[in-house]
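Intended use. Records like the one below are meant for learning the mapping from a protein sequence to its folded structure. Do not use them to infer anything beyond what is encoded.
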Amino acid sequence: MTRLFSMLIGLWVGAGLVAAGQDAPLAAITKVVKEERTGAANPMPQASAQLPKFFDDDARRGETFAVYWSAAGRGLPEGVTVMFEYVLENAPEVRAQHIQYDFKTEGARKAVFTIPEKDFREGGKVKAWRARVLRGRLLAEQASPTWAAATERKK
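Structure written out for the chain above:
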């Protein structure tokens, strides 16, 4: 009887561990940061007239965001998508960009999203954002504190 009881307890605990393992996240977003553009912030004055277009002030305007995320355990098979959704100051619609990984992803990753210059000029700076890691279902999500208010539909 004691042996049967021990086996039942072992099965119950084992089943609990398996269930807990299935609930463990497959991916995590560690942080989302706005990155400063690198380049010539102060081009050499004597050569400024000869500098290429990408050193002009308009070309440096815009915003770049980095999503730092990681795949847990042995990683994730190909087909993982990192989506960056954003709302601009002067444009209420949600816009999105994504990066799809066509290879197995393991460990820490960085996905970089640059707001197109045209969007930035027409809509202003990003006022709210949401980053998601997907593979057939939502694996991880992080949003700015302003996301809910920016995407709330006016009634």
